[in-house]
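Researcher: Here's my situation. A collaborator sent me these components and asked whether they could plausibly form a single complex. I don't have experimental data yet, so a predicted model of the whole assembly would be a useful starting point for our discussion.
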Amino acid sequence: MAFDDAYGALTDHADDARWAYGTGFTDPLAGVPADLPDGVDRADLAAYCLMLGDDALIMSHRLQQWVTRAPELEDELAIANIGLDLLGQARLLLTRAGTAEGAGRDEDDLAYRREAHEFRNVRLAERDDADFAQLMARLLVFTTWRLALFDRLSGSRDPMLAAIAAKGVKELTYHRDYAAQWVVRIGDGTPLSHARMAAAISGVLPLAGELFQAHEVELRLAGVAVDPAVIRGEFDAVLAEVLTAATLEPAELPEVPATGRDGEHTAALTEILAEMQELARAVPGGAW
Amino acid sequence: MSESTFAETIAKDQRVEPRDWMPDKYRQTLIRQIAQHAHSEIIGMQPEGEWITRAPTLRRKAILLAKVQDEAGHGLYLYSAAETLGADRGDLTKRLIEGRQKYSSIFNYPTLTFADVGVIGWLVDGAAICNQVPLCRSSFGPYARAMIRICKEESFHQRQGYELLMTMMGGTAGQRAMVQDAVNRWWWPSLMMFGPPDGDSPNSAQSMAWKIKRHSNDELRQRFVDMSVPQAEALGVTLPDPVLRWNAEREHYDFGEPDWSELKRVITGDGPLNRQRIERRRQADSDGAWVREAAAAHAAKHGSGR
């Protein structure tokens, strides 16, 4: 490499093979028609995209908070990677929500200019994690549910949602595997770690009931959205398998009415938004 | 390989590989150099990492998260390169959090505004690139190969930083002031990233002879200044150095003397955030101990590693 212009030396030849992950970035949604499918209510579609987008945005925020404090470097990489994937899903879904709504709001308007009660994420996404066992238990529940959901959603009548979901399935498959492996290691590891994972699982399950309560928007969007009740069987089976491997007791999910989907959140979301939206709101007319 | 083939390999500008014979001092110097570089990547995640959750757009958030992830990846590559020399990652981490091994002092400065994210990319990653591009020709093969990938990614990082600053300079007057303020704070520490002046850099001569250091500190610093000045002009910011001017005779920019007493102070642990940076790693290490023990216990029961 030429030394006189160190910066130029890094950019002057097309040797993609030397990039860690290649430079062939492609738009995952290239060629997917952006028009709304016939007979779909715009407001319902926008609301549905917000639900799934907010889940990813808020869960990603919690993962971002772990980036420089994981047990191993490999986990800092993995957690950043999962956070990045979910952030990518959130951006596509919020953009789709804005398009469906038709009021000119983009991903940033939706992420930074809504109040807590306007967020549609499940409460599971916003909870804080006191330790790594809690994070992994929550990630397992979240990704197991979301993977099953996206797997069905890849057959949606909305080609854009179907494409977003198909891309997400590949990512979530890895996320679920990562979380499951840690739940097993921690559950099976030492008496201390076993106790912590048992506590983490019983702490997170009260938040899981909400995941399978169909919202009226989801029911009205039959063929476009997925009724989460239909993925309950798969969720239960996966969870049981992982918990068995982790030497933990099988768990029951309490039934709870959906709350986050209607904008009823815990104080944890208010804290997240205070942090996330602070700068964007502090500089009106700012260019970033 | 023997002592004479080692000398021949160096003389011919070829690569020394992990199983080759090498002088103990060469091995130890490299372990220290690579470990300090790895530590710098890992500590370097913190100043910018603090802004991920607060990034003002989702695009900037994604870029920053990817960048910090890259830095963790660089740390891993480099610890692995050090391990080919017989070092152990756990031991190196211990040395870091006990303050027995150093990392780049630049990361002991605070990131006060989002413009700092841009300036770190432009100047700090820019200085790192100037330092590291020559290391792609390090005589030690695993380090040289790791550096090629790392430099490519650093180049991405530098460009995203500069692009952020360009965008902010097109924003509000307050944002332009924010960029100028960040440049004022980071310029001198960036110049110090090249280390003390050549006359005060005792280990340099041996490292140059072994070809694990390719250019002198002052030479690299000059190149960095020469590359940065036109970029600052294009950006529309002033570099905080009253004596900075083009010297037509030398065909280089003349520039002022950094405050070396400050560098010494920060290196010896008395910078603005030394304690906080180390404490965060120490906390992560101790908070994660029970998790690593669990993973080891699980692996032992099932006869396999992770």
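Model: Some features of this prediction you could bring to your collaborator: The mean pLDDT of chain A is 92. Chain A has one domain: 40-282.
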